[in-house]
């Protein structure tokens, strides 16, 4: 069985109080098996998140597939959200894929559609 140990900081002089709320229900707090910090908020709300450090994250993309008058497969995208697809263009699509950006489509010698990420 694992043990629970509390260790004070030798440089601190304050008291830390662990107190239960007024409740008649048993509660369990399960700790993850890993190191880390507990995030606290006195307001009860989650802290604001800053996504400025996120890199390499792909954006949402719409891929619309249809054949033109010559029977060629056309793939129309929203260019990572930069372009709009009109309602009339959307109505032409035989199929639609909602996914992340970065897919490249090709047709192999057997006529199969390949998606490459």
Task: List the defining traits of the structure above.
two-stranded antiparallel sheet; mainly beta; 117 residues
Describe this structure in words.
With 117 residues, the chain is mainly beta. It has a domain of 57 residues. Helices cover 5% and strands 23% of the residues. The chain has one helix and five strands. It has a three-stranded antiparallel sheet, with no helix packed on it. Strands 4-5 form a two-stranded antiparallel ribbon. A hairpin with a 5-residue loop joins strand 1 and strand 2. It is elongated and about 80 Å long. It starts with 59 loop residues before the first strand and ends with a strand.
Give a short summary of the structure.
The chain has 117 residues and is mainly β.
Structural class: mainly beta
DSSP strand (E) fraction?
A: 15-25%
Question: Count of helices?
Answer: 1
What portion of residues is helical? under 10%
Annotation, overall tally of beta strands:
5
What gap, in angstroms, lies between the N and C termini? 46 Å
- Report the principal-axis shape: elongated
Order the strands across the largest sheet as they lie in space. Answer: 2-1-3
Which residues form runs of ≥5 with pLDDT under 50?
A: none
* Largest β-sheet summary: 3 strands, antiparallel
Task: Specify Rg, calculated over alpha carbons.
Answer: 27 Å
Along the chain, the helix and strand elements come as: EEHEEE
Average pLDDT level: 82
